[in-house]
Design a protein that fits this description.
single chain, about 230 residues, alpha/beta, GMP Synthetase, Chain A, domain 3, Ribosomal protein S3 C-terminal domain, four-stranded mixed beta sheet, four-stranded antiparallel beta sheet, 8 helices, 8 strands, disordered C terminus
């Protein structure tokens, strides 16, 4: 049987950090923070659906009570004159009975985010666009931005067919077993007229080791000849 592992969890603690940043003084507080973190993420996904949200970072503890939202479309997250953001803050206060500092950050390259690309695919599928055309356009968009490794998998009743099946589209290679490879992954579903379609997106950005240049790498290493110690009798 195949063993399928989430590429993000497989690399957490090795080349990637944790998606949540909170410190709890007790075990009970740790459980409360974890449940609150999951509720914040579900609420954000429902409130900002198809707004280009790539990542939500939950910070709590040591005087911090922040929520960081990384998005490709900050205008949709903020709304006109910041009204939508204020509605989001009031919804958080009503749900959790406390105030949060919400910080919105714009993504420099949205095409490198698997979640943004997966949401774009599902949005087009729910508009009854042909899945092959949608996926090929997404792959071309990602490749045009200098990212040459992407894989998209879609399954279930494609184009309303009676028999369920799956198809995989990829460009380049996806080294899932290489830990130094920075791979972003996301799974989502598209609610179409003829059923639910599952969409998986893998994006291989680059190798982490190539971006970390140490001082020893800048200088050329010179090999010294080995000398043997002669013992006189």
């Amino acid at each position: 049987m195949w063993q399928k592992v989430d590429p993000r969890g497989f690399r957490t603690g090795v080349v990637k950090g944790w998606i949540s940043e909170y410190f709890a003084p007790t075990k009970q507080k740790s459980v409360e923070y974890m449940v609150q973190d999951l509720k914040v993420r579900n609420l954000t996904d429902k409130f900002y659906k198809y707004c280009g949200v790539s990542k939500v970072v939950f910070r709590k503890g040591e005087g911090k009570n922040d929520i960081l939202i990384f998005t490709a479309k900050p205008a949709l997250v903020l709304g006109k004159d910041g009204k939508k953001l204020e509605e989001y803050k009031s919804l958080l206060k009503k749900t959790f009975k406390e105030e949060f500092d919400v910080i919105v950050k714009e993504l420099s390259k949205p095409e490198s985010s698997a979640k943004v690309m997966a949401d774009h695919v599902t949005q087009q599928l729910e508009r009854r666009m042909p899945y092959r055309r949608v996926i090929k356009s997404v792959i071309e968009k990602v490749v045009s931005k200098g990212i040459k490794w992407i894989k998209i998998q879609i399954a279930w009743r494609l184009n309303g067919a009676e028999m369920a099946r799956g198809e995989t589209f990829k460009e380049g290679r996806i080294p899932l077993q290489t830990l130094r490879a920075d791979i972003d992954y996301h799974y989502t579903t598209a609610l179409t007229k003829y059923g639910i379609l599952g969409v998986k997106v893998w994006i291989y950005k680059w190798d982490i080791d190539n971006n970390r240049k140490s001082h020893s790498d800048d200088k050329k290493r010179t090999s010294r000849p080995r000398t043997r110690k002669v013992v006189k009798k």
